[in-house]
Queue: 4 jobs
Job 1
Amino acid sequence: MEIILKEDVIGLGYKNDIVNVKAGYGRNFLIPTGKGVIASESAKKVLAEELKQKAVKLAKIKAEAEALAEKLNAVSLTINAKASSTGVIYGSVNNVQVAEELQKLGFDIDRKIIALKDVKTAGEYVAIVKLHKEVAAQVPVTVTVEMDKPEVQEEAPVEKKPRKAKKEEEAPAEEEAPVVEETPEVEEAEAPAEEEKTEE
């Protein structure tokens, strides 16, 4: 018995395939469940017409995808990202940033069809844009980084230097203290000489 499948059936065939099955399987399972219909001459003609129309539509879709792929293959992107002093990017560069950059160039591409592994460092990469099951475009992506932290680290040592100089200036003041203590001893030595004169 010939059956035209109306949907994919595992182990039997795919949608619109004409398959031969046992009469009981076709009448008791495939037809009642809507998975297939009897492949009569009229049904076959209808199927052939549908396949022609679908083929034309699929050909147009593929042609449009190929035309867009050619345009995308001529594009190259440069994405600037902020990074730490070690050059590791904060977060990552991925398909979201690629879609945004393509949008700026006039390409409305869904980020879901863009394949790019998360980029963590600067370098040259390639984003794959899957426009059709048989058509894909390759877009070169250059990732550059902007590092802010090294500038902050250079300012810190400049502030510490004046503090060290002050400590060095205070240290000699402590060494002069013993010189001041010697003067009272001289005054005490002269005091008895005055007392001797008064006694005379």
Job 2
Amino acid sequence: MNDLSLNHLAIIMDGNGRWAVNKNKSRAFGHKEGAQTAKKIINDCVQKKIPFLTLYTFSSENWLRPKEEIDSLMELLSFMLQKEIKNMMRNNIRFNVVGRLEEIPKKTKEFLELTINKTKNNSGLFLTLALSYGGRQEIIDAMNSILESNIEIINEDILKNHLYCPELPDADLIIRTGGENRLSNFLLWQSAYAEIYTSKKLWPEFETSELDKALEDFKCRNRKFGKV
């Protein structure tokens, strides 16, 4: 455990498109720069020995975006998975995905499954990408799974065990970049007592120094979990 008592860090990576538009570039260019930021932050979390990192990569609502943008995002994801697999193995990263993966294009889904299988025995950072993901959808899917199991009385443990990844603990800190102050359907079950930190930096501008600011702020929070 790191000295921040931070077990699970989750990040809403917002602002790729706005950053690109501000520079008169394509949104695809913004997503490419955002992928490089993600790489830096992942490596920094490895160095900081943060056990769990979840990145909001593509929401269920993002399917409403133009097809050209969606296709470029899926191609970028496939490319980054191929490129970074050696880095994941070298840094002992275990790769994970949550979301409705049946909606992901076949080629990208194959790269996701390959990376999951390749890194499944790693014991370092548990890196999760939320893809085709929505917090409400996750809870609905969990409830349907419970109904199929013929369970009649539900408690928190039962519901948690039917989420996309029961192994994923509650989030301790959620960082959102881009200056917005909302969860946008992200980890609704797991964020019940999460601390929330908003950065005005757009995601491609989010440096490791900005992460340090968020972690310092987290250290100063008084987490009561409903207690006095």
Job 3
Amino acid sequence: MKIYYVEDEKDLAEIIRKYLVREGYETTVFHDGETALEHVQDPVDMWILDIMLTGEVSGYDLIKAIKENHSTASVIFTSARDQDLDKIMGLELGSDDYLAKPYSPRELILRVKAVLKRQLIPQVSEIVRYGEYEINITKREIRLESEMIDLTNKEFELLLFFIKNINQAFAREDILKHVWGENYYGSDRVVDDLLRRLRHKMPELKIETIYGYGYRLL
């Protein structure tokens, strides 16, 4: 599998590159956002992006460009700014995981494997319907009549989780575990925020708030 790693700390980048190559991943390193931006259309399996980069192009700018090019690549954010707001923003923009610096190479490898494993899980049904919505799981597309609805990766995964478990109530902690994975240690506020965005984009969804507990899709 092919990974693009964007990190302006050259010593750290080389250490991580060696670990990734040792695990069998074809890894290309970019030391600035401007160079990486020239490759957002390349067919890769994963981007690992540092948020704060030297120059004018940040990790946030890169993930926006990646998503605008309709890439299906997974994205892991890394940053020394270990704050809930950074995590929420990264996940809202479509990242699959967030890892705060300093981190060990082994921890990053575990996160990479976990995210790519979820990406490779085969889907049982290609198309499912919810009300007037048509959801193409394989293509990760949602249509309402002739209108295409644009969701981030995490918004789509959250929707799919509810669709597969309709009428079942889940605590925020359960939603975090199933959608973000066992290794996510951030605030459960990302669930509330992501659901707010999902409700805005798909107002026909009947997502019930169970106060003091969590949510369910009716």
Job 4
Amino acid sequence: MTTRKKLTAAASALAIAVVISTSYSVFAGSGAPRTAGKSVPASTYRALDLFGDVFERVRADYVDPVEDRKLLEYALNGMLSNLDPHSSYMSEEEAKAMSVQNRGEFGGLGIEVTMENGVVKVVSPIDETPAARAGVQSGDLIVEIDGQQVMGLSLNEAVDKMRGRVGTNIILTIVRAGTPEPLRLTLTRDIIQIKSVRSRIESGNVGYIRMSAFNGQTYPGLQKAFQDIEKEAGNKLIGYVLDLRNNPGGLLDQAIAVSDAFLDKGEIVSTRGRKAEDTRRDNATPGDLARGLPVVVIINGGSASASEIVAGALQDHKRGIIMGTQSFGKGSVQTLIDVPGGGSIKLTTARYYTPSGNSIQGTGITPDIMVERAKIVEEKSTFGEVHEADLKGSLKNQATTPEKVNDPTLQPENKKPEDGAAKPDDKKPAGKDGKAAETEKSDDYQLIRAIDVLQGIALYRATGAAKP
């Protein structure tokens, strides 16, 4: 057998091994390989012969020598990345990096990305990372990395360029909808330690739980958040806000566990693969960690995958009110499959469905109450607000003393409280991260609306309970 024929046969054997070896585990590892139960058509062998011919021509005639392994990796990446945006080949180093990321600590910029029209699209920045601090937003398109065009690079190649030694700078050129000129942002690489769950008390009686990712720390973090909130608020607690904005997803088992925390029974999610036997249904178990209190879930365009599983389960079971904007729309499941040589392939193997049987692939979760991101601006009036008591000759309320009517804390916006009077900023409870919780809330219109809904529900229940 000639050298060329040997190379062709070797390449064909490798390609066949990759094509027909699969395992089924949901974004968690590898299982026992299985073979497709059909014979391979002759046309497939002819196509593999073509691959071998092209492989040998590139190996022999390309302007610069390229390692055989690199050429095969390029071929694998091309095959997988053309299936859908989430399938890819990972070298041994990349597979280890993903394993570290799923455990909740890794190095980089702190952004979840995908590929769209040849450029890198930001799914969401991760809280308290270089990307979030630099102002990277969900939906941003990264068109240059350190001055090099992203067009023409694979997603893995672009990600590799964004990684680097901790403390080094990188310049991202970003195209953002509504911004006329591209933005050039300088970020400093750092160790990304994801504390996926944070919590605090809002308005004295609302438990706020921020979930930024679904990694191995998420469900234990949620359990601790419930304990901390109940310890601090006690019987005053009227409900929970679960903030899943800009949460790009992660581990399916963690999404199921988080959903189960709020549900007593019923289906959480079903995953359906190519074959009937690949269908899997996950159901809730008895026990509601929120003790039946109302829940408002906030989502946006950066809420993807596992976030959408949680939002969809709570929405379909009428367990939570979904508020915010349309979610990302990633309704597929990826399986990590180990391959010879230490690498892995991330392959889309199933679609997932909400309890009502809806697939959100490409559409996303539609909120029950649409609330766009907005900035609250005080409306200033030259003359201040006019009330009945301000009218000349108006009747006086005999039960109200003049001192209370003229309380300086109730004056119109253009009047200042007298010296020594309490000001709105004087009493702002600090959150666990050291910031004033009320200050954070006042800048977050979607969160304000979520708290308003919970307080409205509590008021309605209290009023109803008071009726004979």
